Every structure is written in structure tokens, then in C-alpha cells.
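Lab notes, practical 5.
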Amino acid sequence: MASTTETGHAKNVATFEDLISFCTGYGAAYNPSKVALKLPGLATQLTAATAVLQAVKVAKTTYDNATNARELAFKPLKSLATKIVSALAATEAAKQTVDDAKSTNLKIQGKRATAVEKPDAKALAAGAEPVKTSSTSQQSYDKLIDHFAQLIATLTAEPKYLPNENELKLTALNTMLTDLKAKNTAVINATTTASNARIARDKALYAEVTGMVDTALDVKTYVKSVFGASSPQYKQVSALKFTKRTGD
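Output from the prediction step:
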């Protein structure tokens, strides 16, 4: 479902088309000197506005598809990381190596290596400052990729890590890592494209003087000057409402 703001942009464009229809209906009486207000200029602006709205829709769909694909690709990561650590622990690898893998897995799971010490209630009541702790969840997609790469590096350096299960083999893990990176990059690129599409839309619809909304206001002023403030023609166009909605 389109958001209220997206619907607002489309409504502005639809209303602009209504405005053009009214102006066309005035026949030869509608004859502004300003090129941008002439019917061909209005038609060109309507075409451009329609195009940028469609470009935003396409960019949003690409972004949604990319984020969905990334979410699905990362979904097995936490359970897989736990399996990897268990597989490593079942080998003759050194305890320190296993501990390193466990520490990395905790980061992937979004857990702390040690529990955070709870503040003493009496001390807090007496006015003591609570101990500040930094977040260790590190659950952004960039961080998860970094942690998974570290886990693979630990396994690669351990000659005793030779699992028989295909999903746990280094070849499969490296393939998965490459895919996760690609899916994350696709979202980054889709985000940029969607942002640029919205910028282009805002420029076409809402730029000062040259934007579609300002053109519509100029058209209303012209109709008022030609037919008069109390004329039925001006009442037609003055009833058309345009709103500026940038950046969403």
C-alpha cells in the first residue's frame, strides 16, 4: 500500500492534469505570454512529473526486493554459526581456537561474553552515577558480515577443521559470505537509487519557480488576471489544491 505522502505526490500530479484540462477548455482566451504557462509547456511538465513518480515507484520496488533478499540470505546465519562452533569444538582444535570462535559467535548472536553487572539499587538511590556500558550487539548487516568473515578466518587457520557436512565446509561458507556481501551491496545501491529518484521527483514537482506546483500557482494567477477574481473560470482553478511534500 502506498504511503500517505506518496499518495500526496500522485494527487498533486493528478490535480495538475485537471488544471490543464480547465485551461484547455478556455480555448483562445487562455493565451499566457510566459512559455512555461502555455498548454504545450504544461503538457511537457505533466509528462515529466508522471515520469519521476514512476521512477520513484520502480526504485522503491527494487529497494524492497533487495531488502527482502538480504533478510532471507542472513536468516540462517545465527543458527549456522552455532553449528560451526559445535563442529569446531568436536575436533582436536586447541581450546583457545574454540574460544575465539565462540567469542565471534556471541557477536553474531548479539550476546555479551559476560553478563552486564546490574547497578546496586542502594547506590543509585544514594545518588551514585550508573555505570555506562557500550553496546556489544553489533547486529548491523555490515557488522554481521565482518563477524562471519572473522569466524571463517579462524576456521581457515585451523587445519583440524575438516567437517563432512557440506554446509559447514569452508567452500560453502565462503560462498555464503560472498552472497551476503552481494546482497548487502545491492541494498546499499538500491538505497542510493531510491534517494536520487526522490530528489529528482522533488525537483520536478516542488522546485522554486520551475517546479510543477509553482507553475500551477502561476496558472491560477494568470486565469485570475484574465477572467477576474469572481469569475467561474477562476473559481474552477482556485478550487484545485496543491501541497508541497518534499523528501518522503
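Observations recorded by the TA: The chain has a mean pLDDT of 91. The radius of gyration is 30 Å.
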